[in-house]
Amino acid sequence: MAKYRFYYILFAVVSTVLMFSYKSKLTSVLFLIAIAIPAISFVLLVFSRLLVKIRIEYRSLTAEKFENTDISVTVTNRFIIPLSPAELIGCFPYRNSEKFEYHKLMISVPPFSSVTVNFNSPIRFRGVYKSGIEKLVIYDLFKLFRMNKTMKCYEDFIVLPRKLVIDPIIDTGDGDSETLSQNNFSLDKNAFASIREYRAEDSIKNVHWTMSAKHDKLMVKQMERSIGGSCVIIPDLNEYFPFDEDNYEAADSIIEVMLALNLSLISMKQRCLNAWYSPADKQCEQFSVKNEEDNMLLFDIISRLPRQTDTFLPETIARSCMEASADISAVYFVTSQLRRDFIGKMTDIELFRNKRVKILLVSGAIETDEQAELADAVAVTQGFELWKIDKDNIVQSLNAAIELHKKQ
Asked: Which stretches make up the DUF58 domain (predicted)?
């Protein structure tokens, strides 16, 4: 734009000098053109701004991680002058950015036409993002002026964690010999209350083949009651890694494991007390899940949970659950890093006493020497189990841990 202004100023100066030097009709016409160009161009620009229309459409304001966002922006030029170029400015996922970012996109719209720009890039990380168009910048024909068509039309776009389905978890109680004996008795695979028709989400392991043959359709065993009672699930969402992307990926994996645990446990009629630290409210939050409706509410709450940038020790979260600890038989602690100070005092945490504590370490395939040492320390501690979960293959590794847990 500065280049075109320089050319115009040069033309205006030359035409003015020529007019006063030669005083001919040609120089007078050149001088009048130099005066008329900016005036006419500015008036046309005003009409272009008034007659341009911008529309943004969302297929949905929510999308699961790695799912296409499907956002379209349509710019309609209802004037005789082309918008070439025009600058579209806003927050949207452009190409392979994998997140919503502030972008400036150059477009060209012919007269009496529309141009649609689609943003279909999948988003890599869970969270609430600002999405929308801030303004459209348009230029006159000679690139001397520009005007803004301000929109500031922003929406909250929610990127949801993945919904993972794992095998049912049969909890073996709180370690008391009498309780364990009763629970082991109830682990009989033929113990069920009723028979119902097979659903898509049911495991093929629960099919009752005799009844299926009798009814000429698949029937499954409906479990009668909880095997392990109530439990507590504590996600450790602290940031332990030097790079933001690693912290985002770790937090998302922990949340997906947490939600999968809830879905698995309530399928066995267990009640799950979820406790976490809320960065927005700067306090511990709790939510009890007893059925699928509760689980959907938890899913909605956790999907909007901001990133935890300040450190909040999970031991403090555990203390906040003490009021509900009377009927709790198991604790699931989900983390991306084992802390030496935590491992050293985990047997002194009151919530963990006389409970079966499962520490779920959600990490990658590469393990440091320190993490391997701490994992061994957890494995040999009475009353504690270590479940190693591969963040790149959560379902398979979690199912393997559940199967191993059943055999213990």
From this structure: 195-272
